[in-house]
Design brief:
By secondary structure, the protein is an alpha/beta fold. It contains 10 helices and 14 strands.
């Protein structure tokens, strides 16, 4: 197809060396994109994740798009008129060598500056709806699944601690199935201070704790709410829990002590939506 060129004939875009300083930009709507040294080799793969990234008007290049012939056919209409892309068509095994072992790429992969997010105030104002905060959740598939649930239940955004959360790319983007393009993310240095600031802006924090006396249904109310979730086993850290207005548990009559954090997030978000709609 004329809009694609073969891998052996391409003239690659110049890439910044790993030793160069990070560069960042900011769009009119406030979402930041930063390409850090450790993210220069990051990829997004899988059809839903790549399509959503290409459709996101807030994303800025440079881009590198690699596809199999089947992937090129799937994206042909989407790429019509895109002058910022020089798609490279290659064999599936060649594409797989660019990605982590076992990556289910579905014939599509995109390298782009990592989507970092918005500042906390931009996310929090006006105070309405629900925000999800993750306390030291480091598994990218779990974080990606939380983004997917956040998108499904209309959450206003997700808050991550910058040092203890994966970049919004790779396995996280694949698990999110495009949700990182739809759900704003704020990365903060300190979650406790972030909760203090959110309280100042009119938010109430409810932390999930399997030992809490209150159930989630009892603790939730219609006020703007931050749902705070910790890692499976460890839970929310003490200082973060102390900054929550309430701690609540998900009733589990089956006897299991804890849920995967992405499952817990989905249940908590559903409970919040159910309460808003007056469900009994």
């Amino acid at each position: 197809m004329s809009s694609f060129h073969e891998r052996n004939d391409r003239k690659s875009r110049p890439q910044k060396a790993h030793g160069q300083a990070p560069e960042s930009g900011k769009t009119e709507r406030g979402r930041r994109f930063t390409q850090r040294r450790d993210d220069l080799d990051g990829w997004i793969w899988g059809r839903h994740a790549v399509e959503a990234a290409l459709d996101n008007p807030q994303r800025e290049g440079p881009f590198r798009l690699v596809l199999t012939q089947a992937g090129a056919q799937a994206l042909e209409s989407r790429l019509a008129g895109r002058r910022d892309l020089r798609p490279e068509v290659m064999e599936p095994h060649e594409l797989a060598r660019l990605l982590p072992a076992g990556a289910a790429h579905q014939g599509l992969a995109l390298r782009a500056p990592v989507l970092e997010g918005v500042d906390l105030e931009t996310l929090a104002e006006p105070a309405e709806g629900v925000i999800v905060m993750l306390d030291q959740i480091t598994d990218p598939q779990n974080v990606g699944a939380v983004f997917r649930s956040a998108a499904a239940f209309g959450a206003k955004g997700v808050v991550l601690q910058d040092r203890h959360a994966p970049a919004l790319s790779g396995a996280l983007a694949k698990a999110a199935a495009g949700a990182i393009e739809a759900v704003p993310c704020a990365r903060v240095v300190n979650l406790s201070r972030a909760l203090e600031r959110l309280a100042d802006l009119g938010w109430r924090a409810v932390g999930l704790d399997g030992t809490a006396p209150e159930t989630l249904a009892q603790a939730l109310d219609p006020r703007p709410t931050v749902l705070v979730l910790g890692s499976e086993g460890e839970g929310i850290r003490r200082l973060v829990a102390e900054h929550c207005d309430a701690l609540a548990r998900i009733p589990m009559p089956g006897g299991f002590e804890s849920l995967n954090v992405s499952n817990a997030a989905a249940i908590a978000l559903y409970e919040r939506v159910r309460g808003e709609s007056g469900g009994g």
